[in-house]
Amino acid sequence: MRKLCPNYDKEDGLETVLEVPIPEEMFSNMSPGRRGRRQNMCTWVKSQPNDDKSSPAVIAARNAELHLLLNVVGSPLIPLPLHMDHAFNRPIKDSSIEASTAKYIVHQYIAATGGQAALNSVNSYYAIGKVRMSASEFQGGDESVHLKGSGDIGGFVLWQKNPGLWSLELVVSGCKVSAGSNGKVAWRQMAAQQSHASRGPARPLRRSLQGLDPKSTASLFSDAVCIGEKIVNNEECFILKLEANSATLEARASNNFEIIHHTIWGYFSQRSGLLVQFEDTHLLMMKGKGNKSVFWETSMESVISDYRYIDGINIAHLGHTVVTLFRYGEGSANHKRRMEETWEIDEVDFNIWGLSMDCFLPPSDLKKDHES
Questions:
Q1: Are 318 and 306 in contact (CB under 8 A)?
Q2: Which pLDDT tens digit goes with each residue over 337-365?
Q3: What φ, ψ does residue 236 adopt, rounded to 5°?
Q4: In this structure, is the dihedral angle defined by the CA atoms of residues 102, 103, 108 and 110, taken in order, positive or negative?
Q5: What's a Pfam family in this record (predicted)?
Q6: Closest of 366, 308, 325, 361 to residue 127, by C-alpha
Q7: What are the residues whose beta carbons fall under 8 Å from the beta carbon of 61, sequence distance 6 or more?
Q8: Is the Cβ–Cβ distance between 156 and 74 less than 8 Å?
Q9: What is the pTM of this model?
């Protein structure tokens, strides 16, 4: 990952630190020669299109495509706020056999990721990683879905502080999204656009549940139930299931749409106790004209691998997510679309000094909008 940017105004000037590190792969396809490399680097950092001959319509369509990828795949939220002491203090007895089994599996997961003392010693962390994203076109009916090209490469930086405070900077092919939460409200902002607050209570980022934050993962599944077993990548796994309650779904709804359900599944290895697959599915109903509703069903499946110990905490360093979008209903023809993301963690560290509340302040336009 490249963390420094050359000085384009003065060749012998000092390099500057990039807000989001750039993957090395971004440089492998650059033009030969110093001038070509500098021009490509400058173009990428300044988030301008590489092809000067592209029409404004083509550029706008390309940016819209990248925005969709960054919103749907890069920075989704999980449906529930977390209570961090749940996983460690909830008794196993006085519960149904399914709930008791799930709590036992969560305790095994806590032990596999470092133990209660190690997880409780973490109050903050940061992670730097690289991603590759790709998507298909919308396909109608039963047509097969094929991804376009080899995908877009980018990088991200995630800061988190137990766990309601978090901040994400994600850049893919020159398109950037910033997202965050101050514990009261979560927001998302694309470059040069107004920031938008997420409806309902502040919720954690899904990316942190993909093997980066074992304590939050254990807290999330502490209220789950065990519904069976499944083999994932040759690993025999227990399946834990969790449903978002009606009050949480209603808090996220509006006059124009309603969330029917949001369900989470975690697949925990019977051999190692680690989380090897994380899934969630939610169904949203858009209210159209003439009582004709359009349904959007989003399914996300993340396979998690390459666990390594960092300061006594077992962290996943590789993963792959597949997202499937279905659109159907009386007000729409049936369409589906597929998106994918492969990510790799390059650097992670815990208990960051100086990570104060000021690091998680909402954007100024979001604050003004809230006050008005």
A1: yes
A2: 999 999 999 999 999 998 999 999 988 88
A3: -75, 125
A4: positive
A5: DUF620
A6: 308
A7: none
A8: yes
A9: 0.86
- Please tell me the distance from the alpha carbon of residue 265 to that of residue 272, in angstroms, as a whole number: 18
Nearest CA-CA partner of 214 in 316, 99, 73: 316
Query: How far does Cα 94 stand from its chain's mean position?
Result: 35
Strand partners, 82: none
End-to-end CA distance of the chain, in Å?
42
d(CA 288, CA 272): 48
Q: What is the 3-state secondary structure (H, E, C) of 34-87?
A: HHHHHHHHHHHHCCCCCCCCCCHHHHHHHHHHHHHHHHHHHCCECCCCCCCCHH
Q: How far apart are CA 280 and CA 243, in angstroms?
A: 10
Measure Cα distances from 104 to 46, 98, 224, 372 in Å: 50, 10, 11, 48
Torsion sign, CA atoms 99, 103, 108, 112? positive
What single string gives the DSSP state of each residue in 120-134?
HT---EEEEEEEEEE
pLDDT tens-place values along the chain, 372 residues long: 777 776 666 777 777 777 777 777 765 555 444 444 455 455 555 444 444 455 677 667 778 888 888 999 999 999 888 876 656 666 666 678 999 999 999 999 999 999 999 999 999 999 999 999 998 877 776 666 777 777 889 999 999 998 789 999 999 988 899 999 999 999 999 877 788 898 888 899 999 999 999 999 999 999 999 999 999 999 999 999 999 999 989 998 888 899 999 999 999 999 999 999 999 999 999 987 777 889 999 999 999 999 999 999 999 999 999 999 999 988 677 888 999 999 999 999 999 998 999 999 988 888 655 544
Which residue, 195, 206, 238, 233, is CA-closest to 82?
206
